[in-house]
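name: query_chain
kind: protein
chains: 1
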Amino acid sequence: AKQVFYLSGVPRSGSTVLASLLNQNPDFYVTQTSPVLDSMQTISSAWGRLSANVLDQDPTQLKNILRGMHSNAYAHTPASYIVDKHRAWPASIDYIQDITDIRPKIICTTRDISEIIASFIILIDKTEGVSYIDRELIESSKPINTATRARLLWEKYINVPWASLRKGWQQHPDCIKFIDYTSIVNTPDIALADIYNFLEVPVYTEHTTTKLKPMHENDAAWGLPGLHYIRPTLKKTSPPASDILGKELAEYYNSLNLEFWK
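structure:
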């Protein structure tokens, strides 16, 4: 039987490149952003409203259906270990444990919030035409500048996965393994060994930091071209956050101490 693990974390923190690295292991199948959790939760929320289910309801039927979805979602791959990627896994630990009766193991990538915001802004500046961030600012009659972009990014696009991660960590710290962006790009062998040890699976020693393969994420759906682009060779190329945000704004986000994983 396949073992299913999970990949999550805050955006722009290296989860896509980590997935590409793990996929070099022939025993692993790591997904791009997956529809499995959303599909299961859609069934869960609709179950009580389905007319065919009103009478003579067996209390185990819904759980059996959800468990079947979860266990058969990757029947198409011969890999022994599945790593399903979704930002909401940390906030869904009780849900997935109730369905599978297994204590989940979630790999969560992290990065300083100021660096995440700076990374987004670099992408926005490269976008041809108006990015979805700038469009939202225009529609809400706000000026387009680094500070307004940063605030919108934090409040709407970073905060939700950050809150999911915090909830998982507060309630079930044993289920979560933090892997920081800097360790992925600077010491990938150590980061990968940490992951294998956390998952309690054999360590694969043939990883290479060159010839990395893309993860085929649908960046058009997110409205930011290059959001999940992976360079073929692993290296840190991003400048310090203060170079992009300015010293004052970078220090402001650093002063909020949002990095609870440290």
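note: The CA atoms of residues 120 and 245 lie 11 Å apart.
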